[in-house]
Write a structure and sequence with these properties.
By secondary structure, this protein is an alpha/beta fold. The protein has nine helices and twelve strands. It is globular, with a radius of gyration of 17 Å.
């Protein structure tokens, strides 16, 4: 099977235009010479076969999930055959198997991640892959632990010093599968149901897993929105900015965007 040169960034129903444009800008800055980077809607996804990467941005997870139901199996099959998938916030939550979004119960499109919100916990996986639980969207007043409620404090698993990343009620990610790699984790509880899951479980802000020949990275935070958030009045230290940039680049690396460049260098 041939994987195309296309990076498809979803801009259809449920996708937030700010998230879409910020993600497109950052990926284009890094990889525009290596890939065709295209903003697409659901109808385009129905026609496209086996792109290099799918990108699901932040936005409204319910609307996005409803829009993508028709192409869910097609996307999953493509990832299984070698395409990558990168999901931010709502885009990460769409990759789920069972999720009660308040009322009524809503089952998003993909069936990859077991998710709940802060009013309900439902451990009823359908495809049971990857065995990740996404708790969200979270609505807690983070001003109890820091002045700016839109900056989550996270730490990379290989770093000791925490940093702040833009956050907009995104999910907390959990996994009991040792094959899944936690890229970054929250430094404090963000969901009241933590004890009903496992108080000792790492609360991941970003996680990586494999699906067949494909690679998936899901993030509950927005490293792609740092510049936008600064323009909106949110304050970041130079270390915050550096680490957000590294988190975005590592996510891109894990879904395979560096492979073509590394091959050409070799």
């Amino acid at each position: 099977m041939t994987i195309s040169n296309n990076v498809l960034i979803y801009r259809g129903q449920g996708a937030d235009p700010t998230c879409v444009d910020a993600t497109t800008t950052k990926i284009s800055q890094l990889y525009s010479r290596d890939y065709s980077i295209i903003q697409v809607d659901q109808s385009y996804l129905e026609r496209e076969n086996n792109p290099y990467l799918y990108v699901l941005p932040g936005g409204n997870a319910m609307d996005m999930g409803n829009s993508l139901k028709k192409v869910a199996e097609k996307i999953k099959n493509s990832v299984n055959k070698g395409s990558g998938l990168l999901g931010f916030c709502a885009g990460a939550m769409v990759a789920t198997s069972n999720w009660k979004y308040h009322n009524p119960c809503y089952s998003p499109a993909f069936g990859w991640v077991n998710t709940v919100d802060d009013e309900f916990f439902a451990d009823q996986p359908r495809l049971n892959f990857p065995s990740i639980t996404a708790v969200g969207p979270t609505y807690h007043d983070l001003t109890k632990v820091q002045p700016d409620p839109r900056l989550a404090e996270i730490v990379s698993t290989d770093k000791k010093q925490s940093y702040h990343c833009f956050w907009d009620k995104g999910p907390v990610l959990y996994s009991s599968d040792l094959k899944h790699r936690i890229i970054a984790q929250y430094t404090y509880p963000t969901n009241p149901y933590i004890d009903t899951i496992n108080p000792n479980t790492i609360q991941a802000a970003a996680i990586h897993t494999l699906y067949g020949l494909g690679s998936i990275v899901l993030l509950g935070v927005h490293p792609e929105l740092t510049s936008w958030a600064e323009r909106k009045g949110h304050s970041f230290t130079p270390y915050d900015i550096e680490q957000n940039d590294l988190l975005f680049k590592e996510s891109c690396h894990l879904v395979g965007l560096d492979k073509k460049r590394m091959t050409s260098i070799e």
